[in-house]
Write a structure and sequence with these properties.
By secondary structure, this protein is mainly beta. It has one helix and 26 strands. It has two domains: 173 residues, Immunoglobulin-like; 153 residues, Sandwich (Immunoglobulin-like). The strands form seven sheets. It has a seven-stranded mixed sheet, with no helix packed on it. Strands 12, 15, 16, 21 and 22 form a five-stranded antiparallel sheet that branches. The protein is elongated, with a radius of gyration of 31 Å.
């Protein structure tokens, strides 16, 4: 997991896959049925969908007759066209699909599988999954995701894996190890105020993100990431966003740890309090490396500082940066809220250059020292 610190200053599936006229009658071939095994990769990856919650995925697959003299035939033969594969029973390691397919001898197979939010297939407004086996190269035939939307209008974990170059002689099952191919982000808030103050955080958003892109299974990377307005397509200057904490939720509460000292004259004992460091919800964003010269990504929120029931101040705060969001990683942003970040002026104590005058010699006669010869302390602000 990667972490960064901020110190802030004030329906119908769209398919383009085609089939070839050279499809064999696989039911007449006496060979093993094509089966599937899978596991969700962990490592340093986001784990919103894990092995326990993973119940279904969809498969594209084709085969081609490759040889030493022709290692990349000019087309493939479609076998699986966005076919759902489901777990036979909760917790089972067996998976099933309709209309069993069989391995064709001497054919080389290419399989591509995905899971979007555990159940969802894309509609036209969020993008499309496709594979065109009529293309003359492996790169052209590989699985693609086109015009995928990843912002506050479409929030789903997206898993993918591929298994290429399989033959019947070596494989009776197709094994997948799915990985998360978006980026997951969240935030934690720290209070830098004295422990008797609470900081309430609400309406946390990350905005100005690139929210539309294409994914190539051949390269296993996202390309063509751009900003579009999914709410008002006519808007030529979109500011897409994801919400980490919705405005209608109860605010998050952050508090600094330390000792609460009773007021002067009180008989109460000092109380030690532990720090409270709240976390936001998570959100998925499009992987992208933002570089100098591009519009920066922003994080914004409302911070309300309270002492007991009294509101000291409430401020809308924001900060911006150029993130590097790698595919399959989670980024937790740690945000510290204190007096300077809230735009407050500090109380500053000053003395003269000679802070303490020398002692004066007095006499028993009661002669007074010079009243102008005193140590001066001035309290001021930064104004």
């Amino acid at each position: 997991m990667k972490k960064s610190f901020f110190y802030l200053a004030a329906g119908a599936l769209a398919l383009t896959a085609c089939t070839s006229e050279e499809v064999l009658d696989e039911s007449s071939i006496h060979s093993n049925a094509i089966g599937f095994e899978n596991v969700v990769s962990k490592q340093t990856r986001a784990t919103t969908i894990d092995n326990g919650s993973f119940e279904t995925f969809s498969v594209f697959g084709y085969y081609a007759f490759e040889s030493e003299t022709n290692p990349d035939p000019d087309h493939g033969i479609l076998v699986f066209n966005n076919e759902p594969v489901t777990r036979k029973a909760p917790g089972s390691t067996e998976w099933t699909y309709n209309n069993t397919r069989y391995w064709v001898p001497d054919a080389t197979y290419y399989f591509y599988a995905y899971n979007c939010g555990n159940v969802e297939k894309l509609g036209a407004q969020y993008g499309s999954f496709s594979m065109d086996v009529t293309q003359p190269t492996k790169e052209g035939r590989a699985f693609k995701i086109t015009n995928y939307i990843c912002d506050n209008t479409h929030q789903h974990d997206l898993l993918f894996d591929k298994n290429e170059g399989l033959k019947k002689a070596a494989n009776s099952t197709v094994q997948f190890k799915f990985a998360h191919i978006l980026t997951k982000v969240d935030a934690k808030f720290f209070s830098d105020f004295a422990p008797e103050y609470e900081v309430e955080i609400s309406n946390v958003q990350i905005s100005n993100i690139r929210n539309k892109g294409d994914y190539s299974a051949f390269d296993e990377k996202w390309i063509n990431q751009i900003r579009v307005n999914t709410i008002n397509p006519a808007d030529e200057n979109p500011i897409p966003y994801v919400a980490l904490w919705e405005a209608n939720k109860d605010p998050l509460v952050a508090r600094n740890g330390g000792t609460l000292t009773p007021a002067v004259g009180s008989t109460d004992e000092p109380v030690t309090v532990e720090p409270v460091i709240p976390s936001t919800d998570i959100a998925f964003v499009m992987p992208h490396t933002y570089i100098s010269g591009e519009n920066k990504v922003s994080i914004s929120f409302t911070a309300t500082i309270k002492k007991g029931d009294e509101i000291v101040l409430s401020r809308n705060m924001s900060g911006s940066w150029l993130p590097t969001w790698e595919i399959g990683y989670q980024y937790t942003y740690n945000i510290k809220i204190g007096g300077s970040t809230a735009g407050l002026d500090a109380i500053v104590f000053q003395t003269t250059a000679t802070a303490i005058d020398d002692w004066k010699k007095g006499t028993d006669g009661g002669t007074l020292n010079d009243e102008t010869n005193t140590n001066t302390i001035t309290i001021s602000t930064n104004n």
